[in-house]
């Protein structure tokens, strides 16, 4: 499986770096199988940091080996369990089990609006699930431990197009 990581720099050796905000799947190294999503994220990182360039790092992972030898939490869709998990992580209150890999939908800008309406109480969980069914959801694979990162093989980069 090819994975992409958007950044403002080349990340040939991924590291777990403490984040300054709460993200969908908590602490970890975020990747996606969607190259366009990674390009968009690289542009956002570059605009926010104003240094480096728009860089998409490419990795390969033997998913059968990695997912069999490590713990994996996988969300097939933006269902109620995903909503609970993302809400708890974004609020910094997740106290559940830790995993080496977490795979599932990403709450991009479009999804984020719907998700925000849920977190402030405008939408119920059921309404949120229904609203998300019509959205095009990309994925993310988050590597949360050094063990998980050890399965990544750096393949190179795509620079700004």
Structural features:
single chain, 161 residues, alpha+beta, 4-stranded mixed beta sheet, 3-stranded antiparallel beta sheet
Please, could you describe this protein's structure?
This protein has 161 residues and is of the alpha+beta class. 36% of the residues lie in helices and 21% in strands. The chain is built from 6 helices and 7 strands. The strands form 2 sheets. A 4-stranded mixed beta sheet has the order 2-6-5-4. Strands 1-3-7 form a 3-stranded antiparallel beta sheet. Strand 4 (72-74), helix 3 and strand 5 form a beta-alpha-beta unit. Helix 4 (109-119) runs antiparallel to helix 5. The chain is globular. The model has no long low-confidence stretch (mean pLDDT 90).
How is this structure best summarized?
It is built from six helices and seven strands. It is an alpha+beta fold and 161 residues long. The strands form two sheets. Strands 2-6-5-4 form a four-stranded mixed beta sheet.
Give the tally of β-strands. Answer: 7
Q: What is the CA-based Rg, rounded?
A: 16 Å
Shape: globular
The biggest beta sheet reads: 4 strands, mixed
* Helix amount: 25-40%
Low-confidence stretches: none
Mean pLDDT: 90
What percentage of the residues does DSSP assign to strands (E)?
A: 15-25%
> How are helices and strands ordered from N to C?
EEHEHEHEHHEHE
Strand order of the largest sheet: 2-6-5-4
Helix-and-strand structural type: alpha+beta
Helix count, DSSP H or I runs of 4 or more residues: 6
Cα(first) to Cα(last) distance is 23 Å
